[in-house]
């Protein structure tokens, strides 16, 4: 008898006295948990998002629609990026002619080629205030998952208040589980058993978020 068979056998014995429930999964699993924690105004929700993003070591900026182009240009210049990766549907008014060379993501772009790009600029699907999390779903203004994971510097534009929600349950209602979802809470980071933090191991070392109002 294999280990797998032994484990499954124990599971079957543990469930032997459980009465089968033929109801649909949606009815069997309770959904009576809190959807949000407390009541917040739109402004308070956005402030909470900014606070939690910063707590995760993201760099938060605020910009009006007419200023985002210049802000992106300044961030790229400060970073010193020679090339900038852009998804196919990124709004053109987010970019300036003086920006670094635009590298459009294509199916033929290899990870090695993308690794030579200094920065990537994307939009997002939704941002969650209570967790300081940004979710990308592969829409045209976000592109393939790899373009937000390989470059070392990620500039993500969040439209406020339209793309900001308070909680994870509210975010899930907006997302399509069949899409390639990428959940981002600060720059990529990990730590070993000694709790030594290392950033940039499996994603961008620097995350800059523009709250576009």
Automatic annotation (TrEMBL):
It comes from the Bacteria. SUPFAM superfamilies: NagB/RpiA/CoA transferase-like. Residues 47-212 form the LUD domain. This is Lactate utilization protein C.
């Amino acid at each position: 008898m294999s280990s797998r068979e032994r484990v499954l056998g124990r599971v079957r014995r543990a469930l032997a006295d459980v009465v089968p429930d033929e109801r649909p999964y949606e009815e069997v699993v309770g959904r009576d948990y809190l959807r949000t924690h407390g009541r917040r105004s739109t402004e308070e929700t956005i402030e909470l998002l900014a606070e939690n993003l910063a707590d995760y070591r993201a760099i938060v900026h605020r910009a009006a629609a007419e200023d985002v182009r210049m802000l992106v240009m300044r961030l790229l210049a400060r970073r010193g990026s020679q090339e900038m990766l852009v998804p196919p549907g990124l709004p053109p008014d987010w970019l300036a002619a003086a920006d670094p060379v635009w590298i459009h993501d294509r199916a033929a772009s290899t990870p090695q080629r993308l690794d030579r790009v200094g920065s990537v600029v994307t939009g997002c699907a939704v941002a969650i205030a209570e967790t300081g999390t940004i979710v990308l779903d592969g829409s045209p203004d976000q592109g393939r998952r790899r373009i937000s994971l390989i470059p070392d510097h990620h500039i993500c534009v969040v439209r406020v208040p339209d793309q900001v929600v308070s909680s994870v349950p509210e975010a899930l209602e907006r997302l399509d589980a069949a899409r390639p979802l990428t959940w981002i809470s600060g720059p990529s980071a990990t730590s070993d058993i000694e709790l030594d933090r290392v950033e940039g191991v499996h994603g961008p070392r620097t995350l800059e978020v523009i709250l576009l109002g």
